């Protein structure tokens, strides 16, 4: 068989492993790492005691991981030989929480060496972050493996941007196999965490070159943001949900209904005339239990994007770097 045919067959097999043949299970680690959930929960809880933003950071990692080649831990890889990191893509610049992931990985390795992937750690950490800050849990599907490469181009093109319209957001979610309900629901993760002023300051005075503020931004809220984001200081961090910034609840949606969505991409969900997302926002604003239930389902949907499973990939011992390989002479190389 010629080399091109071999390469094509290998690519097809890889797609099959990431596609419908890939099976995840909530009981995947029941025998190999029975204390996994407790270990992750304890470490996330400790992180939240010293950093109220820890939960939001972990959920963001999982989200940004899944939208590029599926949930395979690639977002965590730093630049190294043979790997062009996704972290240099615009959507990942400024992403935080590596120290928390490192702590969780260290605790998991101490309990179950060489067993649990970084991708699965992100998935479990996201759920525990939500539960520990007031939300409801869901059944996390497990059994992912870690990618041995990153996808910088995918990170540049696939990650939703805070400056995008509803049509642009829908297109990116649809490309990942997620619908408008998933879009509105997963955006609700912005009910906790912070955003730098640079990501919304364009709405305050000269929105899209109009010379005026974004008309979908509540004027009183806009005045407060102008004070909080002085000109030239785009690194100030403002709560995405000013009412309950550190709690996982449905206040994000009541903010949208009152035109107090911080990011353009958030307010677009409610302020785009005739959009089907308006009804979903209203539903979640009026029923927190409904939001919690759908959030769990949408997280499962997102976690099932092109799962990478054995024999592909690896279990990284350091989430930031691919495992060293061993040459015939017994020398470890990267």
Automatic annotation (TrEMBL):
One of its GO terms (molecular function) is peroxidase activity. Substrate binds at residue 160. The active site is at residue 64. Its cofactor is Ca(2+); heme b. Gene3D superfamilies: 1.10.520.10, Peroxidase, domain 2 (1.10.420.10). Ca(2+) 2 binds at residues 191, 241, 244, 249. Belongs to the peroxidase family. Ascorbate peroxidase subfamily. Belongs to the peroxidase family. Classical plant (class III) peroxidase subfamily. InterPro entries: Haem_peroxidase, Haem_peroxidase_sf, Peroxidase_pln, Peroxidases_heam-ligand_BS, Secretory_peroxidase. Removal of H(2)O(2), oxidation of toxic reductants, biosynthesis and degradation of lignin, suberization, auxin catabolism, response to environmental stresses such as wounding, pathogen attack and oxidative stress. These functions might be dependent on each isozyme/isoform in each plant tissue. It catalyses: 2 a phenolic donor + H2O2 = 2 a phenolic radical donor + 2 H2O. Ca(2+) 1 binds at residues 65, 68, 70, 72, 74, 86. Binds 2 calcium ions per subunit. Binds 1 heme b (iron(II)-protoporphyrin IX) group per subunit. PROSITE patterns: PEROXIDASE_1, PEROXIDASE_4. This is Peroxidase. Its main location: secreted. It is an enzyme of class 1 (oxidoreductase). Its EC number is 1.11.1.7. Disulfide bonds join 33-112, 66-71, 118-319, 197-229. Residues 1-22 form the signal peptide. Keywords: Calcium, Disulfide bond, Glycoprotein, Heme, Hydrogen peroxide, Iron, Metal-binding, Oxidoreductase, Peroxidase, Secreted, Signal. Pfam families: peroxidase. The record marks 60 as: Transition state stabilizer. It comes from Cucumis sativus (Cucumber). It is found in: Secreted.
């Amino acid at each position: 068989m010629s080399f091109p045919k071999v390469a094509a067959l290998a690519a097809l097999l890889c797609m099959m492993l990431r596609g419908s043949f890939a099976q995840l299970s909530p009981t995947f680690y029941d025998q190999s790492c029975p204390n996994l959930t407790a270990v992750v929960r304890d470490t996330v809880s400790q992180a939240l005691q010293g950093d109220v933003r820890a939960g939001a950071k972990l959920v963001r990692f999982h989200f940004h991981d899944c939208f590029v080649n599926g949930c395979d831990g690639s977002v965590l890889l730093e630049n190294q030989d043979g790997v062009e990191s996704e972290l240099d893509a615009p959507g990942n610049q400024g992403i935080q929480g590596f120290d928390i992931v490192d702590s969780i990985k260290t605790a998991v390795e101490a309990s179950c060496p060489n067993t649990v992937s970084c991708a699965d750690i992100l998935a479990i950490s996201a759920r525990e972050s939500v539960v520990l800050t007031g939300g409801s849990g869901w059944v996390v599907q497990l059994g992912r493996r870690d990618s041995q490469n990153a996808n910088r181009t995918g990170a540049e093109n696939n990650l939703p941007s805070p400056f995008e319209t509803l049509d642009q957001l829908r297109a990116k979610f649809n490309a990942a196999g997620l619908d408008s309900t998933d879009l509105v629901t997963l955006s609700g993760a912005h009910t906790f965490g912070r955003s730098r002023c640079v990501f919304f300051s364009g709405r305050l005075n000269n929105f899209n070159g109009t010379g005026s503020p974004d008309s979908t931004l509540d004027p009183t809220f806009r005045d407060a943001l102008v004070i909080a984001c002085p000109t030239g200081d785009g690194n100030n961090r403002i709560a995405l949900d000013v009412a309950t910034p550190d709690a996982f609840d449905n206040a994000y949606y009541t903010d949208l209904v009152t035109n107090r969505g911080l990011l353009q991409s958030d307010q677009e969900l409610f302020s785009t005339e005739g959009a089907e997302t308006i009804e979903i926002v209203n539903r979640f604003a009026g029923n927190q239990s409904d939001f919690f239930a759908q959030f769990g389902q949408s997280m499962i949907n997102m976690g099932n994007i092109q799962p990478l499973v054995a024999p592909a990939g690896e279990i990284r011992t350091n989430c930031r770097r691919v495992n060293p390989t061993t040459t015939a002479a017994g020398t470890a190389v990267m």
